[in-house]
Amino acid sequence: MTINSKIQNINCCDHIARRVGDIAPSGIRKFFDLLASMDGVISLGIGEPDYPTPYHIREAAISSIENGYTMYTPNSGIPELRQELSKHLKNTYNLDYADSQILITVGVSEAMDLAARALVNPGDEVLIPDPCYVSYSPCVVLAGGVPVMIPTCEEERFEISAEKIEPLITEKTKALLIGYPANPTGTIMPREKLEEIVKLANQHGLIIISDEIYSRLVYDCEHTCIATLPGAYENTVFLGGFSKAYAMTGWRIGYAVGPASIIAAMTKIHQYTIMSVPTMSQVAAVEALRNGETSAAEMVADYNRRRLVMVKGLCDIGLSCFKPQGAFYAFPSIKNTGMTSEDFAHNLLMEEKVAVVPGNAFGRCGEGYVRCCYATSLKELYEALERMERFLKKRGASQAATFQV
Ligand SMILES: Cc1ncc(COP(=O)(O)O)c(C=O)c1O
Fold first, then answer.
1. How far apart are CA 324 and CA 183, in angstroms?
2. Does the beta carbon of 362 sit less than 6 angstroms from any atom of ligand 1?
3. How many CA atoms lie within 13 A of 232 on its CB side?
4. What CA–CA distances, in Å, run from 96 to 28, 91, 245?
5. Is the distance from the beta carbon of residue 254 to the nearest atom of ligand 1 less than 6 Å?
6. pTM of the entire predicted model
7. Contacting residues for 62 by C-beta, under 8 A, at least 6 apart
8. How many Cβ atoms from other residues are within 10 Å of residue 162's Cβ?
9. What is the rounded distance in angstroms from the CA atom of residue 130 to the CA atom of residue 154?
10. Which residue among 254, 269, 281, 312 is buried most deeply as judged by most CB within 10 Å?
11. How many Å apart are CA 121 and CA 119, to the nearest integer?
12. Taken in order 73, 77, 79, 84, is the CA torsion positive or negative?
């Protein structure tokens, strides 16, 4: 048998590990592959700032390249960045993180994967809100764990609570993986509810993995950093990033801070799989932390203007929508159209060239909703709303809906 005929006899699909084969591709990507082939689409789909990274941050990276700063860095990140981050967390939240408690990662994405892999043994259960960011469940599954979903609903502003979580805890429960402000709903959690959840986690010896990537994007309220709550610091792995606050999605940089033992375990995986985050991204992140606040504040003020237009606009055309207080997403109900969220998103894209993400991409409780990212220009938002109204009118579903505050 020749080598070639041997190769032809292999069915590669049979060789894919079951835990990978069983995971569905992201429901977001499916739509973006489709819209990439179309012209004239207004995208309310991808969750990323429409701004380029502020120039002074780009300039810092350019000069690091010009100065030949192009080698591997220490696994945990360059000392300047770890020091600057430690200062930032102290100034923002009055939290003390020593060098051994800080790891610079390839975005919150890598940090989340590392946290799951460092903590989860085969069969361990991890509690996750439903709906939630598309990566949470796959991360747990890829680490050999079992995601256990905490159902939420619009009537309760998609908030979780200790009462909802307690009955789901078993002797296999290892951790809670949560993220507020939330993607896809824009929910922020009231401080008191988070305090109750921390208390419950402590009673059951659970680790909290808290994805706070949208912490800088809150409106009319303050962000509650979970690690600041009584009893939380010792058992919280706090994940943060640069992608959203400083419009740095393409730089692929974020961080994990938390108990030294967990950060050391995460660093071990990072060391063998990633080695270190791109050097120029780390230099850019130092500049973002030192001098990026003015630009961040301007972008947040702009997102806030768009948020108000988006939510009111959606309600005016007949899609009820609670008023999100964080991130840059609105999550209107499309239940009155009688369509599934996938049909709604598909038909809207085909008929009116507006891209939104079906809510079921974020979990079962997301069915009946679509995610609209308002990080796009006001001009495009108004145009998208007009197109959506036309789409709804054709189906007799454009009565103004309740505006929930
Ligand atoms: C809730 C949430 N967490 C994490 C990420 C990934 O962030 P990063 O770009 O830092 O990997 C995203 C990206 O959209 C997100 O929405």
1. 10
2. no
3. 22
4. 37, 10, 22
5. yes
6. 0.94
7. none
8. 16
9. 11
10. 254
11. 7
12. positive
CATH of 55-292, one of 3.40.640.10, 3.40.50.300, 3.40.50.12280, 3.30.870.10: 3.40.640.10
Annotated domain spans of the chain: 3-52+295-404, 55-292
CA distance 272 to 261: 17
Map residue 130 onto helix, strand or coil.
strand
Q: Which strand (E) or helix (H) includes residue 370?
A: strand 370-373
Q: Is residue 321 within 8 Å of residue 332, measured between CB atoms?
A: yes
Between vectors from CA 397 to CA 394 and to CA 403, what angle results, nearest 5°? 140
Least confident of 26-30, 120-124, 234-238: 26-30
CA of 369 from ligand 1 middle (Å) equals 20
| Token pair listed for 146 | 């079992």
Q: Is 179 in the pocket of ligand 1 (CB under 6 A)?
A: yes
Atom of ligand 1 nearest to the CA of 132: 1
| Weakest mean pLDDT among 5-19, 142-156, 177-191 | 5-19
108 C-alpha vs ligand 1 centroid, how far in Å? Answer: 6
| Tokens standing for residue 82 | 């770890």
C-alpha 188 – ligand 1 centre gap (Å): 16
Q: What's the CA angle centered on 176, arms 174 and 177, to 5 degrees?
A: 125
Cα(77)–Cα(79) distance, integer angstroms: 6
Could you tell me which CATH number the domain at 3-52+295-404 has? 3.90.1150.10
What gap in Å lies between CA 93 and CA 70, rounded to an integer?
Answer: 33
Q: Report the phi/psi class of residue 198: left, alpha or beta, with left for phi > 0 and alpha for psi in -120 to 50.
A: alpha
